[in-house]
């Protein structure tokens, strides 16, 4: 088999692709899990690169790993963290629930890269002076603490670098619209029915507040950085690791990524359960729900252009129909709403993966790969959709002021401001009569001489209805 080489692990020999940087354990996992044919997310592989480098640095500081091997491991890990060898990580998402296969994949690739830097060939793990994937790259570690720690690194990095900045952009864009449109009054709606007037600025101020709270929720989810499992090894007891190892790893990660990672306060809890991820994804789900409110309101307010509300003009981004010429649809809003559908589904995945008796069993959670895949997808989709929402919709969104004035004038709920003057029951009669006669509240009041014209104009001023009064 000229395109393969023979490698050995503790279970025996395996045929490994000749050009692969991984070894027998990874090849065995590839053979065992042909399920989704989708590898563990690249963000997790990059997180493993950072983690293995931090572990090598900690072991060197503790005198457990010689400088020569440590330097080679760190250099190799840096290249993995940079994404240079993503194609060398083929293990399926649906694998052993502890992520052992991906941890060994990282150990083998980094060991082989390090050995090349030391002048040894690929597969030289048994050679004197060479780097061994278990003894050196995995020193003081277990898959049971490295995979979940990499989960924290990947999730926290994605939230900080992508999700929070895009949500902040959305909040700013909505706040700018709220300020710009604060003098424009439109009709309000409750229960999908006409209500009293509200300023467009107030509506968009509400949307901006939702986006601001979304930023707060994303920062709350970022608390994942405070519960790192590293140092717990097999079952959270720290067997085969130095008592200062975890703290040094967290410090090294902080320097590398600019995030203040913290060791778990209780290692058995951190490794046995994934409550922190369930909680954090709950924040992501809430963010998704918030974005649907904003996106759906905007698409409804922009509906038309002639036979519906059309208080807003949405930017035309693409033709809306293959059969109806000139049709334009709220496609960006629809994309954001579809993202929410996926995130809500992912929340069910994360939640069930954390359930006792499903993922969390005694001293270890065994549904971590699918959990982090769902979590990272949600983070990516929310970040990207928020950015697209700003760039493709909010920036060029416009108000149709004439349409807003037209609908206010037609609204029967303008009578609400007359209730303190004529009483609730007479005001209700005016609304019903205006509807029957197909006239406006203003005109009916003038016809029936309910109030003098000047007083009526003051009472029916739409802007004053949007502000508290004495």
Residue runs with pLDDT of under 50 for 5 or more positions: none
Strand content: 5-15%
Counted by DSSP, the helix tally is 17
Query: Nearest-angstrom radius of gyration?
Result: 30 Å
Number of E-type strands: 8
Largest sheet: 2 strands, antiparallel
Classification by helices and strands: mainly alpha
Gap between N and C termini: 90 Å
Mean pLDDT: 96
**Gross geometry:** elongated
The helix-strand sequence is: EEHHHHHHEEHHHHEHEEHEHHHHH
Short synopsis of the structure:
By secondary structure, the chain is mainly alpha-helical. It has 17 helices and eight strands.
Walk me through the structure.
The protein is mainly α. It is 56% helix and 7% strand. It is built from 17 helices and eight strands. The protein has a two-stranded antiparallel ribbon with strand order 1-2. Strands 3-4 form a two-stranded antiparallel ribbon. Strands 5-8 form a two-stranded antiparallel sheet. Helix 2 runs antiparallel to helix 3, helix 2 crosses helix 8 and helix 10 runs antiparallel to helix 11. The protein is elongated. The relative contact order is 0.10.
Describe the structure using short key phrases.
470 residues; mainly alpha; two-stranded antiparallel ribbon; two-stranded antiparallel sheet; 17 helices; 56% helix
Present the secondary structure layout.
Blueprint (H helix, E strand, L loop, with lengths): L3 E6 L2 E6 L6 H9 L9 H20 L5 H15 L18 H18 L15 H5 L5 H38 L4 E6 L2 E7 H22 L23 H13 L9 H6 L2 H27 L10 E2 L17 H24 L5 E2 L2 E2 L2 H25 L5 E2 L1 H10 L8 H4 L1 H14 L3 H7 L5 H7 L11
């Amino acid at each position: 088999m000229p395109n393969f080489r023979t490698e050995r692990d503790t279970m025996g020999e395996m045929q490994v692709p000749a050009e692969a940087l991984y070894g027998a354990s990874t090849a065995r996992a590839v053979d065992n899990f042909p399920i989704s044919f989708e590898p563990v997310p690249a963000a997790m592989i990059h997180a493993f690169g950072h983690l293995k480098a931090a572990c090598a640095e900690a072991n060197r500081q503790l005198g457990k790993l010689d400088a020569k091997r440590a330097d080679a491991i760190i250099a190799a890990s840096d290249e993995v963290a940079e994404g240079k060898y993503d194609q060398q990580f083929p293990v399926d998402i649906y694998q052993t629930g502890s992520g052992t296969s991906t941890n060994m994949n990282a150990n083998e690739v980094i060991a082989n890269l390090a050995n090349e830097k030391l002048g040894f060939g690929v597969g030289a793990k048994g050679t004197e002076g060479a780097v061994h994937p278990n003894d050196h790259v995995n020193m003081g570690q277990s898959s049971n603490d490295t995979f979940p720690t990499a989960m924290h690194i990947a999730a926290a990095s994605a939230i900080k670098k992508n999700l929070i900045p895009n949500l902040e952009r959305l909040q700013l864009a909505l706040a700018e619209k709220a300020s710009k449109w604060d003098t424009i009054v439109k009709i309000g709606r409750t229960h999908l029915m006409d209500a009293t007037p509200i300023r467009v600025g107030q509506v968009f101020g509400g949307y901006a507040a939702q986006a601001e709270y979304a930023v707060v929720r994303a920062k709350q989810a970022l608390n994942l950085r405070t519960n790192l499992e590293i140092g717990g090894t097999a079952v959270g007891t720290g067997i085969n690791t130095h008592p200062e190892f975890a703290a040094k790893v967290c410090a090294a990660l902080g320097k590398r990524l600019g995030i203040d990672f913290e060791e778990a306060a209780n290692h058995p809890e951190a490794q046995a359960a994934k409550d922190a991820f369930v909680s954090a994804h709950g924040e992501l789900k809430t963010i998704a729900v918030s974005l649907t409110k904003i996106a759906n309101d905007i698409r409804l307010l922009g509906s038309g252009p002639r036979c519906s509300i059309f208080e807003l003009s949405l930017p035309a981004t693409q033709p809306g129909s293959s059969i109806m010429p000139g049709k334009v649809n709220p496609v960006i809003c629809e994309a954001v709403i579809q993202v929410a559908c996926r995130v809500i589904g992912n929340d069910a995945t994360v939640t069930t993966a954390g359930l006792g008796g499903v993922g969390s069993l005694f001293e270890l959670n065994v549904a971590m790969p699918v959990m982090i895949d769902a979590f990272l997808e949600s983070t990516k989709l929310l970040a990207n959709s928020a950015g697209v929402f700003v760039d493709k919709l909010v920036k060029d969104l416009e108000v149709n002021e004439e349409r807003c004035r037209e609908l206010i004038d037609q609204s029967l709920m303008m009578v609400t401001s007359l209730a303190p003057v004529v009483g609730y029951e007479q005001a209700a009669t005016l609304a019903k009569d205006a509807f029957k006669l197909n006239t406006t509240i203003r005109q009916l009041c003038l016809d029936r001489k309910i109030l003098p014209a000047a007083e009526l104009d003051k009472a029916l001023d739409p802007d004053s209805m949007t502000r508290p009064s004495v």
